[in-house]
Amino acid sequence: MGSTEPVGQPLPGPQPLTDEQWQRIVLFGTPEEVAAGDYLIRSGERDYDLILVDTAEVELVRDSLWWLDESVLAVNGARTFAGELGLLNGQGAFLSARASRAGRVYRVPRAGLRKVMSEDDELCDLLLRTLWQRREALRKGPAALTLKFVGSPASKDFESLRRFAERLDLVHTAFEIEPGDPYAFEHHDVAPEDLPIAFIQGEPILRATPGLVADRLGLSYSGDSDEVVDLVVIGGGPAGLAAAIYGASEGLSTVLLDAVAPGGQAAATSRIENFLGFPFGVSGGELIGQASLQALKFGVRVYAPCEAARLRSSEDGLEVTLTDGRVIHARTAIVTSGAAYRRLPLARWDEFEGAGIYYAATQFELRHVVDSPVVVVGGANSAGQAALYLSSHGSPVRLVVRGDDLGRRMSAYLVDRLQEDPAIEVLTGANITALEGDGSLERVRIDAAGEVDARGLFCFIGADPATGWLDELDRDAGGFLRTGTDIPEERLDGPWVRLGREPLPFETSVPRVFAAGDVRRGSMKRVAAAVGEGSSAVASVHRALAG
Question: Is the pTM for the entire model greater than 0.70?
Fold first, then answer.
């Protein structure tokens, strides 16, 4: 279960700050004299500081693991700083900072760092860009072993861990192992039933889950019991990210929760070609990654996986109860919980989920099917984009569309490209009737084509709104949340009478609870529309708080 040390380029040497920048930033720090060998940050610390290096010298260290010696990743000289992107989202330190030469440093606590970023635009951009570049460099080298996953490539739980880490942009590495391999466990005090295993700083978590890993890394909600936030956003898709970013940028203390990781269905989209400002297209993962970084810039506290189980009004505002029993107190809430993927009613579906059946077509899924035949089912843009992405990476694709008109729900530019692609066969008026394989998906039966080889089945047949936990909010027959003027008059009693007003745009049947994106009745079900709804809902939040 050992691993070869990832080979990567050394971290780029940090550029010293100018005299003017240095004089501004040290105002937020506290000076400290350090001796050579002193640790300024220890890996595993939850509450640590940004270190401004003045006359000392500080080295960034990946601590020794039980199978590897320590590794010095970079050396920070005068007028540079030591820290990592996790400072902005509360993640515990996964690297240590150690003085390699005596001298003076300045400590800037997280609150001070947030103050720098809110009050000084130039320093904010410099810090954010440097921390992001440092994160990108770290993932390619020895630091990646500070979070290591070990599991079977056919395991849904192992895939969940990898997806969680990738969606949260965590520095990590994954090591695939076959449970039946007689040599895999020979020198290790673990058994096949212990998989997947997450090693954090070399310490194992057996039968690891994203929730367990998030708790250990400091990514689970841990607010004070008497804390009241201005806004809690429930759901981290495009609507939720937009709402959180606009709320935080406009001065609201904002918490963003997601049951898996930020991104929603958009993160599963291989290519978005009609999003404003991206003439050459953008992957959903890239778009969500940049939005997540923007959220950290403005001070959004992002927690995932963190699932809400109940939302109710109280005398003091709103209470959001999480599945683990913790409660978040908030003045307002925006529900952007999106929708859950629909499944085909076929035998063995559960067996092949994660072992051939996928609800996204990104680089993550591609590694399982590259150059192999696949089937895509669905008739909307997401299905068309997936088919083009898979064919462009060497997979022959059969696109199965239940309806007879491909252009009914799909954009014209996609229809044209699908019909022109020789690697894609479009089957309209068709249905999948059976799944076959030994351990993983190998063949699919289609009523219009018979049995065909398929290493992967990519399912894009829509989703149902994730509103089952919102029993106090008015919903339509399909489960979508009614908002604003769409709420029946008979629901506007009690608290509305006391408030002396009707629901604001995007406000649900419960005052100060709003909804945006796919979960809302009447929404456009497009990424751009979701972003617009999330940001617009914040305008109504401000009006509600002012009243």
Answer: yes
